Each structure stands twice: as C-alpha cells, then as structure tokens.
Amino acid sequence: MMRPRVLSAAAIAAVTVVGLAVLPNGAATAGDTGLRAAARGTGVKIGTAVNMDALATDAPYAAAGAREFNTVTPENVMKWEVVEPTQGHYDWTQADKLVDVARRNGQAVRGHTLVWHSQLPSWINETDFTPAQLRDLLRRHIFAEMGHFKGRIWAWDVVNEAFNEDGTLRDTIWLRNLGPGYIADAFRWAHQADPSAILFLNDYNVEWIGPKSTAEYNLIKDLRRQGVPVQGFGMQGHLGIQYGLPGDVLENVRRFDALGVKTAFTEVDIRMILPDDQIKTQAQAEGFGLLLRACLLVRHCISYTVWGFTDKYSWVPGVFSGEGSATPMTEDYQKKPAYDTLKETFQLAS
Ligand code: 9MR
C-alpha cells in the first residue's frame, strides 16, 4: 500500500483521544499483532535499540523484540570500544550476533555509530597520536567496520553528537586534531566503504527548531552542495516530559525533508521524574505519538526507533537519578499508553 502523506486532523485528534482516554494502561488490544504489523504499509519502519545481554538471557525480551520491530539498532556492540578493544584486534562477536538475529527476524539494521567522542577504546585516548595518525585511524575504523558488515546494514549513524547546544561544533578529539573537515571526510569514507548504506548525521536535542538543529540543517545543506554524501538526519528523541514536548517537531522535520535528506527518529525515549502516575504516563504517550506523527507526515522520514522498549533495560535511571519509566513497556512487559498510541497512530496511517 502507498504511504499516505497526510493524516486528517480528525484522525490525528482521534489518536490522541484513544491513546489518552480509552485504552487502560497495560491492556492488550483485541487482535493484537504488534507494532511491526501496524507499521506495515506506512513507509516508516519501527525499531528498537537492542541490548545483547538481554537478548541472550531473557526469552520474553527476544520474543517481543522479534514481534514488535522491523528494524534494530545495537545499543552498544558496534561502538568502537567494543569492536576494537585493542588496536588492530577486532572483535565482531556481539555485533555479528545482532546482525544474524536481525536477518532471521527479517529486520533491517541501523548501524550505530562510527564517529563519536564517547565510548572510544582507551588506547585511542591514552596514546599520543599525531593528527595525521588520528585521521588515518578514523579512516581505517570506518573502512574496517563498514567493510565487515558491507551490504548488511541498512543505515549507518556515521557522525554522532557533533554539536554543542549553541550550534557550535563540539570540542572532541576529532575536531581538535582533524579540524571541522572530519565530518565531510567521514561521510566520504563511509560512502566508499559501503555505497548501499544510508548515511546519517545523528544527534540529540534537535527535535525542535533551535541553534543546534539549525546548525545541523546548515551543515547538511552545505555538505550536500559540495557533493558530500550525507543522506540522512537522525533525531535521537531523548525527551523528558518535565521539559515539555517539542511542539514544532513537524515544522523542524519538514525543513530537513525539504533538503531532500531522509530523516529518522533514532533513539526515542521519554523519561519522567519518578514515581510515574497516570498524568505523566499520558503525557509520555502524547510525546511518543507527536514524534511518530511528525515522521508519518513528511515524505522522507524512514524510521522511528525507540531506545529500548522495556524499562527493564533502559539506560535512563542509571544516568538521570530519580528519573525513569522512559520506554513504551514496563519492566514486566506490560504495554503503556505510549505503546498503544504508537500502534494506533501507525494503524491510522496505513
Ligand atoms: O544506551 C547506551 C548505554 O547503554 C551506554 O552506557 C551509553 C554510553 O554512552 O550509551 C547509551 O546510548 C547512547 C547512544 O549510543 C547515543 N545517544 C545517547 C544514548 C544514551 O546515552
């Protein structure tokens, strides 16, 4: 079925009403066939970050992951510190496993992430490399990792979190040593390494229009004018209901859409100050729906990925003390209103 580009205002309102009022928290709807079935025909894939420890040890986690999602992102196992813990010695074990499971489940893989300031192997931070050596290491890393998975990764987060909140480039080992051109270089190398992968610039706090998202917009525009193969803009979507929801998210996604790049929500979770209650849980559902509607309403938004689907393994409580409940399912896999809103929104759009 063709992907409809416009949801009627009534349909959008209906999603909100159903998501907010009718379905009780945790109830499975009749004829429940999961999010991936609901997403079919919409042109937007539904994804999750995958925790490989949980996948190996928690059968309900593995079953829900296969049932609910048609794209997966490794939460950690494709990061540089994991794949090259010692210089020149690669360990693809966990990442290979993820790609195999995805193939068996008929899921596309979003590769995450090639160029980042975080989760670098300690040998990079601890050795006194020259700028020329670092440039060579970065190039080798991109070719090694993309080469290893060539043809099996649907989209790659090539450069992750390159900007500060004020729209300046983040001070990282890459910017300091290679200069701002490292971003264009990374995309050029990535395209050579695997021409079939869709190449994304990815960041957080860019769901709304502001200095950071505008700087990324300008960079993408500039790079494309120069013929640099940046092909997608990923908005992570780590939100907190206490900060309010990004009311201009659709307007924001539309301007990237107009540039001709693909867009995606790549790491959506919406946290709250604990304990949760019905009001917070409903506000969260609205947030999940808001981002999904923005994705469905533009032409080139290709996927919507949640950063974990159960609170059982969410990164949030470990980092934001006193906060949590950020995913669409509880720790014991009960569906929250956020889950129902995602499903109903997909169903209306298909
Ligand atoms: O969820 C990931 C967590 O398990 C790691 O400890 C953390 C390390 O930085 O990275 C988390 O994932 C991040 C992602 O790779 C990039 N965007 C922000 C995510 C949450 O921190």
Describe the fold and architecture.
44% of the residues lie in helices and 16% in strands. The model is unreliable at 1-32 (pLDDT under 50). The protein has a single domain, classed as Alpha-Beta Barrel (TIM Barrel), CATH 3.20.20. The chain is globular. It is built from 15 helices and 10 strands. By secondary structure, it is α/β, with parallel strands linked by helices. Helix 1 runs antiparallel to helix 15, helix 8 packs parallel to helix 10 (182-193) and helix 13 (278-296) packs parallel to helix 15. Strands 1-2-3-4-5-6-8-9 form an 8-stranded parallel barrel, surrounded by 5 helices. The chain has helices at 9-22, 34-39, 52-57, 59-68, 80-83, 93-104, 122-126, 131-148, 173-178, 182-193, 211-225, 249-258, 278-296, 316-319, 337-349, and strands at residues 45-50, 71-74, 108-115, 155-160, 198-203, 232-235, 238-240, 262-273, 301-306, 323-324. Residues 75-76, 118-119, 204, 236, 267, 315 line the site of ligand 9MR. Ligand 9MR is lined by residues 75-76, 118-119, 204, 236, 267, 315.
